[in-house]
Amino acid sequence: MKFIKTPVKGMNDMLPSDMRMREHVLSMIKKSYALYGFMQIETPCMEHIENLTSKQGGDNEKLIFKVMKRGADLARAIEKGDGEYADNGLRYDLTVPLARYYANNKEKLPTPFKALQIGSVWRADNPQKGRFRQFTQCDIDILGDDSNLAEIELVAATSEMLTQIFAEVGISNFTVHINDRRILKAAAMAAGFAEDDIPSVLISLDKFDKIGLDGIREDLVGNGFDAEIVDRYLASYGAISGAVDCAEFCKSISEEYLDPAVVTGIGDIISGARSMVSEGVEISFDPTLVRGMGYYTGPIFEVSIDGYNFSIAGGGRYDKMIGRFSGQDVSASGFSIGFERIITILKDKMEKGIQISENNRAILIDKNVALEKKLEIFKEAKQLRSEGVTVTIQPMRKNIKQQIEKLEAEGYTNFQKVYND
Amino acid sequence: MKFIKTPVKGMNDMLPSDMRMREHVLSMIKKSYALYGFMQIETPCMEHIENLTSKQGGDNEKLIFKVMKRGADLARAIEKGDGEYADNGLRYDLTVPLARYYANNKEKLPTPFKALQIGSVWRADNPQKGRFRQFTQCDIDILGDDSNLAEIELVAATSEMLTQIFAEVGISNFTVHINDRRILKAAAMAAGFAEDDIPSVLISLDKFDKIGLDGIREDLVGNGFDAEIVDRYLASYGAISGAVDCAEFCKSISEEYLDPAVVTGIGDIISGARSMVSEGVEISFDPTLVRGMGYYTGPIFEVSIDGYNFSIAGGGRYDKMIGRFSGQDVSASGFSIGFERIITILKDKMEKGIQISENNRAILIDKNVALEKKLEIFKEAKQLRSEGVTVTIQPMRKNIKQQIEKLEAEGYTNFQKVYND
């Protein structure tokens, strides 16, 4: 019999120490978002293949783990030979399932609906450091609220959640970058780019952190855009240094391209969220923030921490997407938390990780101990456990030194060895 | 575009009220088992198809959701036309993954290793009431302990966990039935059955609760077994009424078939576990307990509650199974908790389910309210949340009556309506 000990490529076995860290962070996330009225929901890990391949998922659709048809359905598909062997697939994100879920359950849910989803997603990506084929996503979304209150709640709740998690490792400063897709578009059009060219222009702008303004200029001109338009476009970005005021940045963009309410809205989101976050959290307008996905329609946001070159959360408003799925327009705004990235940072900063409870006892019983004596030990253990002490009762091993060392590695500090009298 | 609103057949969308119940039970399970030194671990949901189809999983292997090969691997498989289109599958239980996990990570784990696994499993079963194609399993296992301490800890921990969960709905009585595969085998052999016939004999005995002794007699004789042997076999079971003493039941079985240590062992497990459980928990020898799976090698156990015709937890010792997988014998004993069944009972008994926290406030803001006033409201909300009050801030809807009703259904009791002054 062929038996393979290792997990499937790109997927991980979680050791007890991994799980203690993950459970610790998950419970903080759940507790924190519950205080803001987000309600946890869950969808099946498998979705209809039709929903997963509807072109809303971008490149992720190329990475789907497809689930095979079964029985007669499979036999028919093979006979037909059309390659349609799958009827389901594993979800590659939590957004497509959310759109389906909302379409299916809307009548039973409050409006607006504040959802918290935590779950595994699967992508047949090329595994590399910190990128897995199964990983945990954690999303909050507000559906059915077309006002800025949604963004204020999303940003405030996420900032507070991160504040609490990172306080444990001495990180109290991070930045929430805020921009708006409509400002990105207006700035490009005001400079003279054609509307159809905007996605391509934004791909270049998105590299700002890596290549700077000069790099972007080269990129755009290299892509065949008119140098004069490029220069006009980048001039507004040239003034960026430190915090930028949204109204200041937008003042040269004519109302033909940008509704002034968008600019006021960003101001309101920033001051609203600032009024609710802890000290150390910076919330600021960032005109170079792009966010890759094409489905965003309004405000967008991203969280960064000094010293780490990846964002730890990102999101924005996507008012059209759920409608494209379900045929019924629903305003929506969401924040996706980089759960695995948070775990990476905590592991990095916490030398000993999360240990079992400080109140603990490992009772190691020699094999010659009589039942009567064991029963006494059991009663003591019962009492200790009722007082909240973690107690493990185990047979004493020949190599007791190694047994104790391994238990110490998991956090046990109190050992009771029981021999026959 | 084809869009399917319903979840994949046999799988469920979890509403906020469902999730509150599930999260509540999960947190009690985790907390309770942690006190007994069980350590949570996790494996990927996907396993190598070779491991899943190794004949250890019984009928479940027919129910595997297979995951298709991708790219060049898939193209090769299709060209070959041998039907080998899958390289992975979704796990149908948590035991096969545990065997692989332990083989893969043994060096990093304490011995004995007390594992808690909670996770989804998938079976392409025919969906029916209370049977789903994706459901949560919750298993505790002790690996590397060949003594009865393992069973005592498993039974005591599970009893205590169930006591705590069921106390909330006024159920304080349940029974842990205990038997031993070796006693089942010895009783059959002592009556004169051939060793090869034992699995078939046990299939009949397993129907005791449904068809009684007369039904079993009919079943066995109908299957062609000698009536005299059948009568001799059932005579020992005929005396059963109420609690049966293990030593009493086994006294007529000769040592040729049954090692007396097995009988003493069952006595020790029962008295050991009894010394640690709460009042109301009955732990008793049940000679008719069979447990379906063929891999059990020693003590077996099952939990039942009056008024429900299904068991809510079951398990036993399976000393050979991990070895058959990994080639290295590891003693193992485990308890599988019927998580979905516990949820069914709690839903049945708790009229209102689990609500959001009693300290709550829903702040509904009219769209004409000015930013200044909103900022005041936000500061108040920040203060309330820091005190542990669940606060949701939302735009006031036109149909405010419906908005409040839906929020009340989730447990909100305090409403603050904010209008412009």
Structural summary, described in words:
The structure is a homodimer. Chain A has about 425 residues and is an alpha/beta fold. Chain A is built from 15 helices and 14 strands. Chain A folds into two domains: about 290 residues, BirA Bifunctional Protein, domain 2 (2-Layer Sandwich); about 60 residues, no CATH class. At the A-B interface, helix 1, strand 1, strand 2, strand 3 and strand 4 of A face helix 1, strand 1, strand 2, strand 3 and strand 4 of B.
Oligomer: homodimer
CATH architecture assignment name of the largest domain in chain A: 2-Layer Sandwich
The CATH topology label of the largest domain in chain A is BirA Bifunctional Protein, domain 2
Q: Please give the most extensive interface between any two protein chains, plus how many residues each contributes.
A: A-B, 108 and 108 residues
DSSP helix fraction of chain A: 40-55%
DSSP, total strands of chain A: 14
Total domains of chain A, how many?
A: 2
Tell me the strand order in the biggest sheet of chain A.
1-5-6-11-10-9-7-8
Helix count of chain A, per DSSP? 15
Class of the largest domain in chain A, according to the CATH hierarchy? Alpha Beta
The overall pLDDT average of chain A reads 93
Main sheet specs of chain A: 8 strands, mixed
Structural class of chain A: alpha/beta
Which term fits the overall shape of chain A?
Answer: globular
**Alpha-carbon distance between the two ends of chain A:** 48 Å
Please provide the ordered H/E string of secondary-structure elements of chain A: HEEHEHEHEEHEHHHHHHEEEHEHEHEHE
β-sheet strand percentage of chain A: 15-25%
CATH superfamily of the largest domain in chain A: Bira Bifunctional Protein, Domain 2
